[in-house]
Amino acid sequence: MNALKRNGFIILGGPLEGTRDVLLIVRANSPDEINDRFGDDPWTSLDLLRISRIAPWTLRLGSLP
Description:
65 residues, two-stranded antiparallel sheet, single chain, 3 helices, globular, alpha+beta
């Protein structure tokens, strides 16, 4: 996860209050790229990360690095 953040793939992330879920904002060109990148991460193989949903998002206010 730290490497995915360092290389700019993960932009923002954090827990969704009141749940066991986490929201990750990533920079990717397709859902396949997201699945591939997370599939190679140790958190996935250790069952610490399970993708439950991938949805496109358009930032309309503010900016990201």
